[in-house]
Amino acid sequence: MSATLFVKRYVGTAAILLVCVAAFELATDVTGWLEPVLFPGLSRVLPAFAKEFPNLLEGLLHSFGLLLPSYFLALALGIGLGLFVGYHQPLRTMLMPLFRGVSPIPPTMLIPYAISVLPTFWLSSAFIIFMGAFWPILMGTIHGVTLLEERYLDNARTLGLHGGRLLRKVVFPGALPHIFAGAGMALVFSFILLTVAEMFGAKAGMGYFIQYHADFSDYPKVLAGMLFLSLVIIGIMELFDGIQRRALHWTGKR
């Protein structure tokens, strides 16, 4: 991406961010409108951010050690099962009511059951993240398959594509926009659930850092942790969008 295109794309974002930062600083350090314990100004948050930055990076590594295996397992199983169920109409008819009934259950409701059944807090946390990521990917994949125009499948069969080759060469590429939509939503859910999961069972990580300092009412470090987490999520989602644009270049969308 050229510098001109980068500036053009994100100038509005930068302007909104600057207005929000200015409003926050006005309400804290400048006027003291907000309660100073819960809402420390940048004069306290930024030094805390700089001081805790090595600990935040270490927590990031611990968080990725929990997030990435859970998310990629959900990605593999969600896409694989979604392609299979979506392509086989009788199976889809039988399972979709069950999927629609189970998928809206908040993964956080499963925390007590995960802790009681699974042997470690790490597995319990990974399971919660997996469940939050799995359903959007699965449902997005199934919808992507079902929305494929039948003429594309008929043309592919005429050319001799059947079974696994048909799924790989036609069904999967055709469903890819919906798969990416589900995967992007799942990635956001994964970060939300990561923070929740680390608050009840972890001894390190970004969520643990925020909860630990909140317990001691050290809100400059709490806001520093939230700021760091936001920056990480922005970076990850920009990377995801870049991969999506490259993979879906044939759609013409940027």
What does this structure look like?
With 254 residues, this protein is an all-alpha fold. It contains nine helices and no strands. It has two domains: 1-34; 44-251, MetI-like (MetI-like fold). 31% of the residues are buried. The mean pLDDT is 88. The protein is globular and about 70 Å long. It starts with a helix and ends in a 7-residue tail after the last helix.
Brief overview, please?
The chain is mainly alpha-helical and 254 residues long.
Short descriptors:
9 helices; 2 domains; 254 residues; mainly alpha; MetI-like fold
Q: What is the structural class?
A: mainly alpha
CATH class of the largest domain: Mainly Alpha
The helix fraction, in percent, is: over 70%
Q: Write down the Rg.
A: 22 Å
Number of helices: 9
Task: Please outline the helices and strands.
Elements: H1 3-30, H2 42-87, H3 89-102, H4 111-117, H5 121-146, H6 150-158, H7 163-201, H8 206-215, H9 219-247
Helix pairs in contact: 2-5, 2-7, 2-8, 2-9, 4-5, 5-7, 7-8, 7-9, 8-9
